[in-house]
């Protein structure tokens, strides 16, 4: 493996982390125009659908295409709906109640859920270092979380934290479930099919809520939707997949740990969210804890 090949992969993971960090910023900006959660998610998924459909068709047409069994199709569709419909919807809901910076800190703990799920369902041994890392991670969350509690805001904050935590838990099941199928079908093809599958329940949900009446918002909402579809969805998913192929999942997870720092910086500069020294300290504790879990888990 050449140095250029490796560093290009590292750059792709870095770009993906930055793009994913923008998600909360765009959601918060869109909510200023009073768009509801499922309508915004539908715009994101619907506008990215043609791109994923193109890549799915292109990858399927390749000579190296892997034949899917019925079980494979159901597994990919189920994981897509789990990871990109349920998890995304819960995540979008959370932004109605909490700041973009806090959301990213809470969501970034999903590797701890992966560790626990593997320990419970796959009987994978948890080391003392990983146990200590879990404690460090959740202590960091506590430090960052308590700084956000203001008189009269506890209910909304706890509700928002609940939705983010549930989103991270559901996404962890998606990651664990994809362990075996992704190497078989390829990460890019899996991502394309999974996103296409998740679009169906998203659109049906929107139809049930508002009859797909999503075209009456100000033009700014649609520009945000287009940007989310391309910059926050399509670009980072494919960049991350290629980056992992070049640098490995362990190195990719370490590089991607810069994501919450990006979000906090952007939330402070663009959304005027306040950040305190204790929040920064709590965030660093979370990053160190997740780093130790990811590094030890990939070793």
From TrEMBL:
* Superkingdom assignment: Bacteria
| Major subcellular location class | membrane
One family name in Pfam for this protein = EamA
Any idea which UniProt keywords this protein has? Membrane, Transmembrane, Transmembrane helix
SUPFAM superfamilies of this UniProt entry? Multidrug resistance efflux transporter EmrE (SSF103481)
Where in this chain does the record put each EamA domain?
8-145, 159-294
Classification via Gene3D superfamilies? 1.10.3730.20
Its annotated compartments are:
Membrane
The topology of this chain with respect to the membrane is: Multi-pass membrane protein
Q: Where are the transmembrane segments?
A: 5-26, 38-61, 73-98, 104-121, 128-146, 158-178, 190-210, 222-241, 253-271, 277-295
Give the family, as the similarity comment puts it. Belongs to the EamA transporter family.
Q: Which PANTHER family match?
A: EAMA DOMAIN-CONTAINING PROTEIN (PTHR32322:SF2), INNER MEMBRANE TRANSPORTER (PTHR32322)
Name-wise, this protein is: DMT family transporter
State the organism of origin.
Runella salmonicolor
